[in-house]
Amino acid sequence: MRKSVKRFSARIPLRLFESQPDERRKDPVMTRESDTSPFPYPLRWRIMDGLESALDAVWPRSMSRYSGWALVAPALLLVGILVLGLANIAESSLHTLDRSTFLPSEDYTLANYQTVADSATYWRVMWRSLLGAALTVVFTLLLALPYSYVMVRTPSAAIRKALLVALFLPFFIGQVVRAYGILIVLGTSGAVNDVLGFVGIGPFRLLFNFPAVVFGLVQYMLPFAVLMLAPALTAIPREIETAATSLGANWIRTFWHVVIPMARPGLVGAGLVVGTLSLTDFAMPAMLGGGSQDFIANAIYDQFFRTADQGLGAALALLLVALGSILVGIAIALFGAGTLGMGGKR
Amino acid sequence: MNESSSAGATRARVPEPETTAVRVRDVTMDFGSGVPAVDRASFDLEAGKFLTILGPSGSGKTTLLRMIAGFQKPTSGDITINGKPVDADPPHRRSIGMVFQKLALFPHMTAAENVAFPLKMRRFDPRTIPDRVKGFLDLVKLVGYGDRRMHELSGGQQQRVAIARALVFEPELLLLDEPLAALDRKLREEMQLEFRRIQHELGVTTINVTHDQREALVVSDRIIVMDGGRIQQHARPIDLYRQPHNSFVAGFLGVSTFIPGEAAEGGLTVGALQLSGTHSSRIAAGEPARGAIRAEQIRIGPTPDSLARCDTKLAGTILDVIFEGERLLYVVEADALPGIAFHIYHHDPESFDLYQIGAPAAIGWNAQDMKIFNAAV
């Protein structure tokens, strides 16, 4: 009924509607009759027009069928180089080092893989890397989830800004510098032991052990996890949480039964990123582990640059790539590619 | 003993007071913008009744509903549900089922899990949950859809899940926050009748919020019209339509033509013209006033003489003729009232070709149908 009245206003001179009840909600566009200045063509549109005509010259319309391929070409090139490098490494992993000449052997052999499999040290390094990565994922997600939730949901712009600054600040400081910072803070005469000394305990040896490495990794990974989680939490409508409250859930149960299951794509994505980055990390185990807590990457480094056994290093590198790929493969098989928030069915 | 029994009898003879389910007293919500979103709203709602709060966007109707639900704390005023003040209770401690505008169903759960959620959260005996969920899926006609996910259900089916979820724990009060606004017209009308049926079946006290006047008239026992944060009128649908308290209510329900003028004894003065009408609010003669006449109460004919049963007749010109399916809408300008477009419904679409745009025509009505309101309100 009311619709018909509105439809009218387009057909009948405005003056006739002076007595209509909708008068004070009159369309503001219609009342601004004095504004006769021509529509200014925005600069951005002008630039786009220029770019489009330039593109037409370089990439004519008839080529549009191949546009998709042209767009992925740079990425394909990059991945291609990576694959080439991998093939190179695979090739060199099949040659053992001749200790007398310090040259790789001529014939192909799996001896390097045998060496790794037979070595208790390498097994320990591999398990340590896996355990370290797993613990880092757990602790990082535990810390990142409340952080991103507060950042996304807080009504205060000041708090959100402060959290964002705190999130991006670590990116300006390199990983090595941050590791040095941790060395200073956790050292035997560092700030933490100073405080403990005031209370009358300590000093403790807080560095060069496994927990120190995990601590460093969690500290390093937290911003990545928050960045991956924030969009997933933003995608949960506020009304869903309100609904859960009205149905009888307090905030803890709302978080457990609604927010966490709905944030699963973000949690899986963040877990994968943190997990693979930690598994392959070099600096934290090297600096905070003090040589006693090597991860696979440290072992690879030793083979390439200390022992100069390229073949063994290449074998370890390939094993690391395989390990990471298998873990990602399992995660995708379990949760589906769609859960990473990249298309798929909703 | 004698005394006490006679006292008991006396008490029994006193008629039971109407059971008030919801009592809202002077509730104000001020977000600090200077104009309160809700301004001293007060109303009582009898148990088992269906109340609709009707108003344009920004009228404060949703804010009022959210305060009853507990999502917002009133700046001042009291809300009582079944005799208990609820101001201190957070939403999850109130016994209120709510159907949200965007439904807010849980996409990671099946339909049955969605319905079971409030039972689990409110610690119902786990052994009774499956039967109860099935019973309520029956009630909303979703038998066999229990294991579907939300994206596998149609819009109407999702509505039904939302209703079942809001009612399954037998709340004292059901709140509907414009859940039908996003549906297409046919489905919306079907769901309106469903809401009515389910509400009658369970007898649950219900407050619905909408800007759709047709929905309000169809589903409600009582309607509150709100505008600018204030309750404009609280009445039965038919009384609201027939006896609007002010020109806002008259204009919001149905289609009316308004004639600005000055109040006169028993009517309205517009320039030199005297129109008789019924005063709906108290106004002294000479004060600015507005006459309102509904589109279905105006007759149309070729000449004033042809309008036999009307006591007010005006000659004019046809401005437009619009075919609306079950009826025609004429827009007529009266010669004596230039600048006013009279909207007239004609329920005989056969007469579409009777009047041409620009042709002369006459309109007329009965003075009792012309309501005169204070122009200031």
Q: Can you offer a commentary on this structure?
A:
The complex is a heterodimer of chains A (346) and B (377). Chain A is mainly α and 346 residues long. Chain A has three domains: 2-31, no CATH class; 43-79, no CATH class; 112-340, MetI-like fold, CATH 1.10.3720. Chain A contains 16 helices and two strands. Chain A has helices spanning 2-9, 28-31, 43-58, 67-93, 111-118, 120-153, 157-172, 175-186, 191-199, 210-234, 238-246, 251-262, 264-279, 283-288, 296-306, 310-335, and strands at residues 97-98, 103-104. Chain A has a two-stranded antiparallel ribbon with strand order 1-2. In chain A, a hairpin with a 4-residue loop joins strand 1 and strand 2 (103-104). The radius of gyration of chain A is 30 Å and the shape is globular. In chain A, 25% of the residues are buried. Residues 1-33 of chain A have low confidence and may be disordered. Chain B has two domains: 20-242, Rossmann fold, CATH 3.40.50.300; 255-374, RNA polymerase II/Efflux pump adaptor protein, barrel-sandwich hybrid domain (OB fold (Dihydrolipoamide Acetyltransferase, E2P), Beta Barrel), CATH 2.40.50. In chain B, 25% of the residues lie in helices and 33% in strands. Chain B has helices at residues 2-13, 61-69, 111-121, 129-139, 155-167, 185-202, 213-219, 237-242, 247-252, and strands at residues 20-29, 38-46, 50-54, 76-81, 84-85, 96-99, 173-177, 205-210, 222-227, 230-235, 256-264, 267-270, 273-276, 278-279, 288-294, 299-301, 312-323, 328-334, 341-346, 360-365, 371-374. The model of chain B is unreliable at 1-16 (pLDDT under 50). Chains A and B meet through helix 1, helix 11 and helix 12 of A and strand 6, helix 3, helix 9, strand 11 and strand 17 of B.
